[in-house]
Structure formats: structure tokens, C-alpha cells
Design goal:
- By secondary structure, the protein is mainly α.
- The protein has six helices and no strands.
- Helix content is about 55%, strand content about 0%.
């Protein structure tokens, strides 16, 4: 069945949960938060933040803005993928294996499914006290 992965290795589901947290949640949050001013991706991040905050309500709408998927791919490869190496240590996995698992998780995410809200609250943050980089 397409989209179904059978896990038979020890800790595989724990690794999948960590990949979800580190990849999907991070990328969703990146769409609603402005980048840190010292980020190497701050130029494209600002474009994404302005585009997404200009009335877009759902992730699939944000993904229709050309700069958004491009930025998310850059963010994954520049910042998120290197951070996955810690999982290799934590779960006694080969670095190439965790890199391949991360790449697969990134590639199979379907950001075009309707219904996923795009907001500071959906990213798990308190909108009332939200003040990025102050």
C-alpha cells in the first residue's frame, strides 16, 4: 500500500516520531515565525514570513507561494538535516541511515493537503505572549 512503511527495527517508531518533530514541526513553525536576524537564511525567510502572514490561512495555500517550498527545502538542507546527526548518536544508528530516513521523511510530506491551519497557535505557541527575537 503506497505511503505505508512497516517498521521492524528496534526504536524505529521512536526515530520516526523524532523525525516528525524535527522536520515537519520545524518547517511548519518556520512558516509562521520570522528567522533570527543572524540566520544565514534570513533574506528568504523574511520573504516567506511576509508572504505567509499576508492573509494565508492554510499550509497548502502557503505552499502555492513559490518562495515557500524553496525556502523550506533550503532550511531542511542547511539547518535541519545536519541536526539529525544527533539522532544517530541517540539511537545508535549509522549516520547515512539517519540521513536517508530524514531525506525520505522530508520528501514524503504532503504539504498540499487542505485543512492544516497556518498560525502561531497551530505552531504550538501562545499568540498573546508571542514576541520573536525581542
Amino acid at each position: 500500500m503506497p505511503g505505508v512503511y512497516i517498521r521492524t527495527e528496534p526504536n524505529a517508531l521512536k526515530v520516526d516520531a523524532q523525525l516528525k518533530l524535527r522536520i515537519a514541526n520545524a518547517l511548519h513553525t518556520a512558516m509562521v515565525l520570522p528567522c533570527h536576524p543572524e540566520s544565514t537564511l534570513s533574506g528568504s525567510c523574511l520573504q516567506v514570513h511576509v508572504a505567509v502572514m499576508a492573509g494565508v490561512q492554510y499550509v497548502h495555500e502557503a505552499m502555492a507561494i513559490p518562495v515557500v517550498p524553496q525556502f523550506l527545502a533550503e532550511l531542511y538542507h542547511a539547518d535541519i538535516r545536519p541536526s539529525l546527526m544527533r539522532l544517530a548518536v541517540d539511537y545508535d544508528m549509522d549516520v547515512d541511515t539517519i540521513s536517508a530516513e530524514g531525506d525520505l521523511a522530508f520528501e514524503v510530506m504532503d504539504w498540499h493537503l487542505p485543512g492544516c491551519a497556518l498560525s502561531v497557535a497551530a505552531a504550538g505557541l501562545d499568540e498573546a505572549s508571542f514576541q520573536p527575537w525581542h
